[in-house]
Design brief:
Blueprint: E1 20-29, E2 35-39, E3 47-48, E4 54-58, H1 64-68, E5 76-79, E6 98-103, E7 108-113, E8 125-130, E9 154-160, H2 185-191, H3 205-210, E10 216-217, E11 220-221, H4 238-243, H5 284-290, H6 302-318, E12 349-350, E13 353-354, H7 355-361
Parallel strand pairs: 3-9
Antiparallel strand pairs: 1-2, 1-4, 4-7, 5-8, 6-7, 8-9, 10-11, 12-13
């Protein structure tokens, strides 16, 4: 019978392996002195800044604990020992410690050097190896959300530039900001130049959340989630604190104690918090958006677009229940990817991460946007 398949955790994985699409690292600064990351040359010719962070882009949605479950990333090896072929974490000699953050919207992992620990040395050459699990039970190694492993270990070399631009700062963490109440400054200048707290121009996480209010408001709180954050002033944080932040999504409550949100469940998606502070990859709200129209990437065409469509369907079939957010009939009132240059519905980005994910990563603290930022 179709239902007699047992626990998903113990079933053979029938899904494509994960592939690493691209590795980018900071090679320069943009006009605002922010990190500019370019793809590393597979032949090893790229020079990166000694302050660099590194971004890994994958073709599949990942199992968050496989790329972010430890204080230091154990699924990669960054080392100046070029002679050793690294196949397991134990092979990694004199590694540069790295901390990892997973961004499910982009299917990317950003690796940052760790403050106070050994870092990249100017003028030196390094090898970065991204590791697959050594076997089915291995705790380390990149896996997709359904357990499928990275196809093969991937190694790429690069050289660290002898000098950095004088404005280069260590990239130990994502830049800070008022990600919840962030405003479009051009909008403020045009619409309310005398009111810097103008709610009309809020484009941060509060605005993104408010677009889903049609299904998640007092008296019509679908799945118990309330997103009535007080638009247009965005001055009501209580619903998020009461129903979303740290609360298990109703659609993921499976088994005993499933009402208690889990940060590292054995089975991906079980008792997943709607919003898990500091952990976008374990936030069900993001996946509800990912399977909808607001997360379609128009830049992908042909085979790449079809592969992502199939991957999104796998994600939806696995654990994302019900309608996407926002629902299709409302139309995409915001986008994670631009439909055209200068797309006004594009969410703001912070260091390569959409504003909602950035807010979650920074701790998911809501506040009253009608008051100045602390």
């Amino acid at each position: 019978m179709g239902c007699d398949v047992g626990e998903a955790s113990y079933q053979p994985v029938d899904a494509p392996p994960v592939q690493l699409i691209e590795v980018r690292a900071t090679t320069s600064l943009d006009q605002n002195y922010q990190p500019a990351r370019t793809a590393l040359d597979p032949a090893g010719a790229t020079q990166v800044l000694s302050t660099a962070s590194i971004v890994l882009k994958f073709d599949r949605f990942l199992l968050p604990r496989s790329v972010g479950g430890a204080a230091l990333a154990d699924f990669v090896c960054l080392s100046g020992d070029l002679a050793t072929q690294v196949t397991t974490p134990a092979d990694c000699l004199n590694p540069i410690p790295l901390a990892a953050t997973y961004n499910p919207v982009q299917r990317e992992v950003i690796l940052r050097q760790v403050e106070g620990m050994q870092g990249l040395v100017p003028g030196s050459r390094y090898a970065l190896t991204v590791l697959k699990p050594v076997d089915d039970d291995a705790p380390s190694g990149v896996r997709a959300f359904d357990g499928a492993p990275l196809r093969d270990n991937v190694r790429v070399e690069f050289t660290v530039a002898a000098t950095n631009p004088p404005q280069a700062m260590p990239e130990f963490r994502m830049p800070g900001g008022d990600f919840y109440c962030q405003r479009d400054l051009e909008c403020v200048a045009a619409m309310c130049p005398d009111d810097p707290l103008c709610g009309t121009c809020v484009r941060g996480a509060a605005y993104v959340l408010a677009t889903c209010i049609g299904c998640h408001v007092e008296g019509n709180a679908s799945a118990g989630l309330k997103l009535s954050v007080g638009a247009p002033l965005f001055n009501n944080a209580a619903p998020l604190l009461e129903t979303a932040i740290g609360h298990a999504a109703h659609q993921t409550q499976i088994g005993e104690h499933a009402y208690v949100a889990e940060k590292t469940p054995e089975r991906f998606g079980r008792a997943m918090p709607l919003i898990d502070p500091n952990n976008p990859g374990n936030s069900y709200l993001l996946y509800k958006i990912i399977v909808g129209e607001s997360a379609i990437d128009p830049s992908l065409t042909g085979e790449a677009a079809e592969q992502l469509r199939e991957e999104t369907e796998r994600l939806r079939a696995a654990f994302v229940m019900g309608m996407p957010m926002p629902p299709p009939e409302s139309g995409p009132v915001f986008r994670f990817f631009p439909e055209q240059p200068g797309d006004p519905s594009l969410t703001p980005y912070v260091d390569g991460m959409d504003i909602l994910s950035a807010w979650i990563l920074a701790g998911a603290a809501p506040r009253d946007c009608s008051t100045p930022a602390p």
